[in-house]
Amino acid sequence: MTRTILIILSEFGYWGEELVGPLTAFDRQGYRSVFATPTGKRPQALPPSLDPGYVDPPLGRSVTTPEVAVAARQVDESDRLDDPLSLAEWIPERPYDSEDGHLRKVEAYHRELGRVERDIGRYDALVIVGGSGPIVDLANNGRVHDLILAFVRADKPILAECYGIACLAFARDWEDRMSILRGKHVTGHCKEYDYKDGTGFLGVDFNMGPPPYPLEYILRDATAPDGRYHGNVGKETSVIVDYPFITGRSTPDSYLSGEKLVEVLETGLRRYGW
């Protein structure tokens, strides 16, 4: 039976290679890929990620080869991303405690979550694509958190890349609020590779400067006390598998991340990179 992968993308810009890398591995394997965004809006690649001449300031070099730029542009301009699922239409939103009839509303919310947990039976894995966009509409998105928790409870693998990994750190059960990364080994965008200026997004005229938070510090705290964040600074790639999580530090890790998810699904890989 063909495997199906659910791929979540930001509506404020994704990094081209961080989609095309895993997607290449999935297409080669014959997987079906289903795309989703927070409100069903078509995702778009961040322009620098399609430009092989763009020099990444912290690394001091281009991070996009001409071949990857062509492949990423082909996917971005294709009809594959034209009709993504809407998380807002699929996944319920937890009501405010201050709302009238709160008890009935929160009961309905949990009933709907039960339906979502049944729905994900059609998917074999979840992927959260990185880039700067996830900072805006994925990292602290309650619907994304509930989807992640459903995959964790179903014991299904989750691949997250770059700033998409913040979603894993913030996805927590409201009863104990404990990190699902506690005791796990992960990688993610390290402090040395953070921009000092120029963090931008699609659809808004806003240069944030540096990212709003150092993802490395969040991941160090989220994995404590018995897990570990692996920055692997100075190494060309950094991909960590600590089942059910596969994490890729940044753009150069995209292809390897997708290949490792395939290994998780096909060969039972449970640990890699640590």
What's the CATH C level?
Alpha Beta
At CATH level 2, the architecture is 3-Layer(aba) Sandwich
Helix content class: 25-40%
CATH topology: Rossmann fold
Strand order, sheet with most strands: 5-2-1-6-7-11-10-12
Q: What is the fourth-level CATH superfamily?
A: Class I glutamine amidotransferase (GATase) domain
Specify the number of helices.
Answer: 9
List keywords for this structure.
single chain; 274 residues; alpha/beta; Rossmann fold; eight-stranded mixed β-sheet; two-stranded antiparallel ribbon; 34% helix; globular
How would you explain this protein's 3D organization?
With 274 residues, this protein is of the alpha/beta class. It has a single domain, classed as Class I glutamine amidotransferase (GATase) domain (Rossmann fold), CATH 3.40.50. 34% of the residues lie in helices and 14% in strands. The chain is built from nine helices and twelve strands. It has helices at 16-29, 66-77, 87-90, 102-119, 134-137, 142-153, 166-170, 215-223, 254-267, and strands at 4-8, 32-37, 55-56, 61-62, 85-86, 125-128, 158-161, 185-186, 228-229, 239-242, 245-248, 271-272. An eight-stranded mixed sheet has the order 5-2-1-6-7-11-10-12, with helices on both faces. The protein has a two-stranded antiparallel sheet with strand order 3-4. Strands 8-9 form a two-stranded parallel sheet. The radius of gyration is 18 Å and the shape is globular. The model has no long low-confidence stretch (mean pLDDT 97).
Task: Compile the SSE list and pairings.
Blueprint: E1 4-8, H1 16-29, E2 32-37, E3 55-56, E4 61-62, H2 66-77, E5 85-86, H3 87-90, H4 102-119, E6 125-128, H5 134-137, H6 142-153, E7 158-161, H7 166-170, E8 185-186, H8 215-223, E9 228-229, E10 239-242, E11 245-248, H9 254-267, E12 271-272
Parallel strand pairs: 1-2, 1-6, 2-5, 6-7, 7-11, 8-9
Antiparallel strand pairs: 3-4, 10-11, 10-12
